[in-house]
Amino acid sequence: MENQTESSGRRCRRILLFPLPFQGHINPMLQLGDLLYSKGFSITILHTNFNAPATSNHPHFTFKSVLDNDPQDPRFLELPSQGIAAAMSRLRFFNQFGADSLRLELELLLASSEKDGPISCLITDALCHFTQSVADSLHLPRLVLRTSSLFCLVIYASIPLLDDRGYFKLGDTHLEEQVEEFSLLKVKDILKIGIKNKEDSMVMLTAMLKQTKASSGIIWNSFKELEEPELKTVLRDFPIPSFLVPFPKHFPASSSSLLEQDRTFFPWLNNQPLNSVLYVSFGSMIQVDEKDFLEIANGLVDSKQSFLWAVRPGFVKGSSWLELLPDGFLGERGRVVKWAPQQEVLAHDATGAFWTHNGWNSTLESICEGVPMICSPIWGDQPLNARYVSEALRVGVHLEYGWQREKIANAIRRVMVDEDIRERARVLKEKVDVSLTNSGSSYQSLESLIDYISSI
């Protein structure tokens, strides 16, 4: 058991955490905050007013608004508020204009250290690369949180090489070809990363990689046994400390949800047989058109499997919610909700598989609960995660040719009954559980992280 004196001593030391203001980035940062708080540190969350976290769900944290807290600043009113475009626009804006506002807030916090306790370090999302120069100017150690996989970073670091070799210039006839440098991937996986405006994207990517290497360490929402080959590459190419901790095994993400979670379906779920329900959710940002939405719906019906489908408002372009669904769609086999406490659903005995967009949080949560996946990636790191899940780990079925009801129904039926996939998923869950024991890799990595921050 941890020495109580050590824990109480740490409570006098503060850690500042600054997440990127989108659900997939807020969740792991606040889970990390809970984890560090449980180890005795005082936590201050720097956040934007855009997608501000629910402070009442975290009364043990101190919250400070930064960057967009001037209501007279017209620049923020011009930014899109929803979808992938919103994420990229806001990220570019923060990296371009955020330094002065962040420096001012950090100066105030550092000035209050005698009263509120010394600040050990700043932990920011890796994509907020502008924070490194600000931290350096104040002699404040900065660690980065990578909210995607190690495999993803390895690929991102190789994009200049892939660009030099012409992959981003290949046409549609080459989409199914293998990437010579990474045999796991196809050309279309590289193109789906989303480098449309290559000049802007390359500048942002280069800055992210450079400032990650300049940081005092990288924290990963993962575990060694999941990505061991990639860890060796990361340690070679990023010669700074790396700490791998699977956050879903420590704290749920439900308390940081930006959307209200529906729990009314649990009585129905509790009455379903073991491993009989497909859980469907495509994350907090993806949008589909009407045609694809109906293909998903018909695929679910044609599979003849029970399902729980999280359809957030705005998921279907031009639709408010479910008005496009045909009459009698649900029947007794299906339930549709606006949002669900995902980790709780994945941990439920009735849940047999997860149809996902393969955002990293969702992917890791499924792995931690031993739930096989159907993979429908859209952009960014999702195609990389989907390929890793289906080809390297072999705990999922990849729906890589769009939304077609027949292929959807076949994939659902397969993943719900394939015992080999289910067994591999179970073994992965055992590995993460073992990693958390006293001699396990995740336990040791967390202890190393705590010791490292305490020594800064």
Describe the structure.
By secondary structure, the chain is an alpha/beta fold. It folds into two domains: 4-246 and 438-455, Glycogen Phosphorylase B (Rossmann fold), CATH 3.40.50; 260-432, Glycogen Phosphorylase B (Rossmann fold). The chain is built from 19 helices and 15 strands. The strands form three sheets. It has a seven-stranded parallel sheet, sandwiched between helices. Strands 12-11-10-13-14-15 form a six-stranded parallel sheet, with helices on both faces. The protein has a two-stranded antiparallel ribbon with strand order 6-7. It is globular.
Which segments are poorly predicted (pLDDT under 50) over 5 or more consecutive residues? none
First CA to last CA: what distance?
23 Å
Judging by the overall fold, what is the CATH architecture of the largest domain?
Answer: 3-Layer(aba) Sandwich
User: What amount of the residues lies in strands?
Assistant: 5-15%
Number of E strands: 15
What level of helicity do the residues show?
Answer: 40-55%
Q: What is CATH's topology name of the largest domain? A: Rossmann fold
Which class best fits the helix and strand makeup? Answer: alpha/beta
Q: What is the tally of helical segments? A: 19
Shape: globular
Q: What's the domain count?
A: 2
